Amino acid sequence: MKKFLVGAAALLAAGYLGLTGIAWYHDTLYTESTADQPAASPAAAQVRNILDRNACYYCHSTKAVLPAYASLPGIQQLSRYDIETGQRYFRLDAVFNALHNGSPPPQADLAKLERVATNDTMPPMRFRMVHWRTGLNPNDQQTLLTWISHERKRWYVTPGVAAAFENDPVQPLPHALPTDPRKVALGAQLFHDPRLSVDNTISCASCHSLATGGVDNRKRSLGVGGQLGGVNAPTVFNAALNHTQFWDGRAATLQDQAGGPPLNPVEMASTSWDQIVGKLNADAPFAHAFVQVYPDGLSGANITNAIAEYEKTLLTPGRFDAWLRGNTEALSGEEVRGYNLFKSVGCASCHVGANLGGQSFERMGRAGDYFAARGDALTEADNGRANVTHDPLDRQSFKVPGLRNVALTAPYFHDGSVTDLREAVRKMARYQLGVTLSEVDVDALTAFLKSLNGTYTPATTPTSAPTAPASSPALAAPP
């Protein structure tokens, strides 16, 4: 009985501290951070009020100020755990900025908020037991969902999408992106040109073959002299739609990404752009054609600009896009069921947008220890995003891969550890979502993923690079 009374008293004290803490949180952190920062709209003000009232920033913001009670023994450890976990998996800072200045909220953040609002999963129950006033009421849920729908339609709807899918986290591919055809033609040649490598043996297309889904289907790619890269090569198709490039996001743009491999000592191993420019300048016809488009001539900046312009044309629309645009016959019943599962199970909380991914960084093993189950020794590449930010909370987080043509791009994950698509589906459900799928559901999800195969229509045919193919074959759907 005595233990019960002590426990009850502790719980009541914790509840009091929780209520006091939330009041303190409002009176200090939000007064400091929002009083002089009016919301972008009345709807934004309502959303921010909901996030404030539920202390969402307490665990999901890098700018959170801890309440005084968080330093008490016991509570301090719990607070630290909650904050580290919250910031590792979802940071609201970009949403907060959007609510203040009207900028686009990240697509993946909208999808996560939608899932929370729909399923009422946040704040977690343990937090609510202490902070009694938190939790979304039906009006909060509707307010959040209405704002999310508005923001999606404002920033992320693909022109031509059927009205029924305007508010979906996934969108059809655009028909094309704006490009300069002259730069595209040069970029196509350079993409296939092995002279970017030190020994004239490796081109961009060596690891990103347009005939095999934009990858080389190797666990790790081969560079100059047979050296092995550190991660599985991601597809180049639809990469223009990613918010950053490389698994760890170290390249902010396509052009930045194009500049990495030529000077990487394991990949193309050229010693400098001057070395590459010297070889290309020796090709008089190519150099003459180049200066017609870039008057200041060959340079690392201009070469990578041309390659990036070409990569913007590497879009692969397919049956799924036709279905999203209103062709109800484009997908089978099983594929449609798979897409609905893709959303309801939670896959679409990260695999968002027209590329079904590429819009956020996520921890590999959100719901289970993927790396322990893998068994292999950890590598530097397994640190993921932390290699760029040097933030321990980013350790083992990676850019979410786009799922376009995923049936063609095995092996899977940053480490290329899985070769079978069905097994990849099972592992992602288990380690990212904490879900064990039935074989029937694996069948449906796999059928949907196969419907994401598309067709690439070359915008130009490379002609002067020594190893350029006569044409770039379209992607073919597997039987």
UniProtKB/TrEMBL annotation:
Q: Name one GO cellular component term.
A: cell envelope
Nucleotide-binding keyword on record: no
Cytochrome c domain: which residues?
A: 182-284, 333-453
* Domain of life, per lineage: Bacteria
Identify the stretch(es) annotated as Disordered: 456-479
Which residues lie in Low complexity bias regions? 457-479
Keywords, ordered alphabetically: Heme, Iron, Metal-binding, Oxidoreductase
- Which compartment or compartments is the protein found in? Cell envelope
Quote the InterPro entries the UniProt record gives.
Answer: Cyt_c-like_dom, Cyt_c-like_dom_sf, Cytochrome_c_Peroxidase/MauG, Di-haem_cyt_c_peroxidsae, Haem-bd
Please give the Gene Ontology molecular function terms for this protein.
cytochrome-c peroxidase activity; electron transfer activity; heme binding; metal ion binding
Q: Which Pfam families match?
A: CCP_MauG (PF03150), Haem_bd (PF14376)
Report what the protein is called.
Answer: Cytochrome c domain-containing protein
Native source species: Paraburkholderia caffeinitolerans
